[in-house]
Amino acid sequence: MLDLKNMRIAFVGSGKVATALAHIFHQSGIRISGISSRNESTGLALAKELNSEFYRNPQDLLADVIFVATNDESVRALRNTFPTTQFVVYTAGAVSLNDFPKEHWGVFYPLQSFSLSRSLSSSEIPILLEAPAEILQEILVDLCQLVGLNHALCDSKTRADYHLAAVFVNNFVNHLLYKGQSQLTEKGLDGNLLNALIKETVSKLETISAFDAQTGPARRNDKETMDAHRSLLNEDDRKLYDVLTDSILKTYSKHD
User: Fold this and answer.
1) Quick one: which H or E segment has residue 130?
2) Torsion over CA: 176, 179, 183, 188 (sign)
3) How many domains does the chain have?
């Protein structure tokens, strides 16, 4: 088994996920031996922050484990790049491990949203792990424990379910927040007045389920208010409003 404190980790990618994970490992005393990125500017900058080296070709990376933190297409393109003796893990949520060499590839999927302007602690980043090779699985589990990352073993099918759920609760919700803010700012109103409501919407989920937390005109089937809302919307936003309203009506019609 590798001595984790003396192991070398390298990254392919220099975006939000690579930056967040690389800094967490670096801050825990783990050596980042190299960064490779198609974006040379951000790759060089990240390597400098980590006292590491930048490599244009990912095949030149020297590490005990290489983390591929790129988009799904790039992950798939790299599956035959590295020798079979090289441990490689990718961070993509929707890419199945079934199409990768089983002897040395694995998954290190952070179930979290990252932004370069925000810093998350390791305790705020759940990790879903998959590694057919027992030795790689042990390394990844020990690595999570060393740096304080919450983790769980997960196969590709289950990870895809988590990824889909994450799209609903993060990507779609964030888009709806944008739509709500836009409705106000386009009319010269203060979108910041929604901030307290946004915080409470999320905070209450610590004590009650999203199902029980639902409020609003669709929840109480207030047709007059819903019609008034529709009259304020353009055609595209009205379609979105109707889809969401219909989903809420159907959800609670089964229980009321």
Assistant:
1) strand 127-130
2) positive
3) 2
Task: Name the token pair of 231.
Answer: 């009259």
| Domain span at 136 | 4-154
User: If pLDDT is split at 50, 70 and 90, which confidence band does 251 have?
Assistant: very high
pTM: 0.92
Q: Which of 132, 154, 176 is the last residue of a domain?
A: 154
Check if the beta carbon of residue 54 is closer than 8 Å to that of residue 10.
Answer: no
Rounded to whole angstroms, how far apart are CA atoms 157 and 155?
6
- Express each pLDDT in 142-182 by its tens digit: 999 999 999 999 999 999 999 999 999 999 999 999 999 99
Sheet of 65-68, strand order:
54-55, 31-36, 8-12, 65-68, 87-90, 105-110, 127-130, 151-153
Claim to verify: residue 135 and residue 202 sit in the same structural domain:
no
* Residue whose token pair is 């060089």: 44
**Collapsing DSSP states into helix, strand and coil, what is residue 87?**
strand
Residues 27 and 121 in one domain: yes
- The last residue of one of the domains, among 87, 122, 154, is 154
